[in-house]
Design goal:
Length: 248
């Protein structure tokens, strides 16, 4: 494990185990979003800055810390609003999204979390419009130098489906799970080991990638926001109950 700071661990004798993933595991991160505010010893709202920030990619929205909320239902809400905003780079978009990151090198004075190998699992309410998943709720991890250090997209809403990919300098192999029901709670996980990443949705293996797998440490990102113009999609929040990481 690399670069851990202020890790929240479960103290009970029966620590949770990764859903559907066999093996002997040690819980190294248990971040529960049950409080009234963001645990800033691990997480930071926004992408390399406070207030209204850029997005990490060409996602068609800015990110705002105001859209990360804790309404008292035991979860963190990542909201997308019909608020026109201008990102730090000068781009202006009609929508504003939300993002939190555990990157210890995003300009913060201390804290954060990154890891090398292990299972990353999150319990997420997937926003939807009708029978389709909204554009770009996402659970993912990234290295410090993209794409050289890898990007593990554990779940991202794309073309109405829940998709997984692992990006490296030569591409981004992956797939989608068309049967996952949007507008409900799901558990998403990736088991990152030397030379492979295996993906599990609700404890069921949905795919595996064995090319271009990094050995560089990665940090965790939770984000919501995309470039679609469907206001029905954009007003549904992505909610997160917990994020956990286990290692062998």
């Amino acid at each position: 494990m690399i670069g851990v700071a202020a890790v929240v661990l479960t103290t009970s004798a029966a620590s949770p185990e990764p859903l559907g993933i066999p093996g002997h595991w040690k819980l190294v991160l248990d971040s529960e979003f049950t409080g009234s505010s963001l645990n800033t010893s691990i997480w930071r709202a926004g992408w390399f800055g406070a207030g209204v920030t850029n997005s990490p990619g060409n996602e068609g929205v800015c990110q705002s810390s105001k859209n990360v909320t804790f309404p008292g239902d035991g979860t963190m809400h990542l909201n997308v609003t019909m608020t026109r905003s201008t990102c730090q780079g000068g781009q202006t978009y009609p929508y504003t999204g939300a993002l939190v990151s555990s990157d210890p090198q995003d300009g913060r004075s201390s804290g954060g979390f990154q890891f090398t190998y292990g299972v990353l699992q999150a319990r997420v309410y997937v926003p939807a419009s009708a029978a389709q998943i909204a554009d770009w709720p996402a659970v993912w991890a990234a290295g410090q130098n993209l794409p050289r250090d890898g990007e593990d997209d554990i779940m991202e809403g794309s073309t109405g489906q829940a998709c997984y990919h692992f990006h490296d300098p030569l591409g981004g192999p992956g797939g989608c799970e068309p049967t996952l029901v949007p507008g409900g709670w799901h558990t998403f996980a990736s088991d990152w080991q030397p030379g492979s990443v295996t993906y599990y949705y609700d404890g069921v293996k949905v795919g595996s990638i064995t090319t271009g797998i990094t050995n560089s440490p990665m940090f965790i990102i939770l984000s919501n926001g995309g470039a679609t113009a469907d206001t029905g999609i954009k007003r549904d929040s992505m909610q997160v109950k917990y994020v956990r990481v286990w290692q062998r």
